[in-house]
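Hi R.,

As promised, here are both runs. First protein below:
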Amino acid sequence: MKKQPQVTEQTKANLRDAFWQLYTQKPLDKISVREITDLAGYNRGTFYLYYRDVYDIFSQIEDELLEKIQTALTDSTQQSDVFDLSAHMGIFLELMQTHSKYASVLLSDHGDPHFASRLKELLLPFLNRYFLPTGKMNAYEQELLSEFYLAGLLAAIIRWNRDPQMRLDEFILFIVSNVFGDSYT
């Protein structure tokens, strides 16, 4: 007997929500499958239908978020020959806001440093392609400048996401005009 897709997705969502609630309270290695299933209202067998262990559910959350970011940025750059920094940064930030439940924790001190590294690797080709003056630098210098831009941009996004005192469009304009200059606004 096959399960209905809607029931499967709802069950997975309930397990993820229970996991995430626990993850925001304690380290990953301190979370048990039993805690997740008790909180979600399922038995352990149900958990193992969808996930190998606690690390697998965590990894799937990270992978899906990164995949959504990659897809959105790739799709948006393929739709136009001209790269609009404000628009593309807006797409990225909207995704971060939409998924802030995960993104804000993953990029916080409590989060996973590996996630931040993977996010930087995902953003690096866009940064290198559109913003860095590659002809003027050797590979090492380009890598240093890329890391500088990415670290600063992510830090600003994390800070803004934690306490957004500016509207999204105001934040984008602020970053673009102050970091990349008026030529991008």
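And here is the second one, sequence first, then its structure tokens:
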Amino acid sequence: MKIEDNFLDQDEFKEIQGSFLGKEIPWHYSDTVVYGKDDSGKIKGVIKDGNFQFVHMFYTQHAPISPYLEKLNPILEKIRPTALYRIKANLITSTIEPVKHDFHVDIGNYDNPERETIYPEKLKIFTTSIFYLNTNDGFTELEDGTIINSVENRFVTFPANIKHRGTSCTDKNIRMVINFNYIK
């Protein structure tokens, strides 16, 4: 895992942050944060208090789908991926008490919950990175217990086969991140 603070220069960061915090980027409601299986093994959205989010999908399954993708060029120029798989922004609203979402990997069942996650050996070729757009008391937790606090302009990178989860925040109106899934 690699944590890079002040990932972008301040002007580039403020421009990206302003686009997301303003009215420029459209957000879409999602009634789940993580898909899962119920006790019988049936795929379902994991629904519980505070387990919803707003998303903006930029790129999925190797294809751009947002006219706002160019806003992320400063980040893409720094990470220089060989191939992109998915780029998705998440906006989670505050909750009175922190809500921890379920552990997951980003690649596999997000776009089609009826399908199983990509074979674990294939996941090893992918990288997951998270770019934090605002500072708040929410965090990302890796399955081994590592906590990465939400600090604006922080960029965290780890292998895509590492399970992780996010949380809501309680001290700001929103917690906002952009997830990148790619081959280095």
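A quick note on the second one: The two ends are 14 Å apart (CA to CA). Let me know what you think.

Best,
J.
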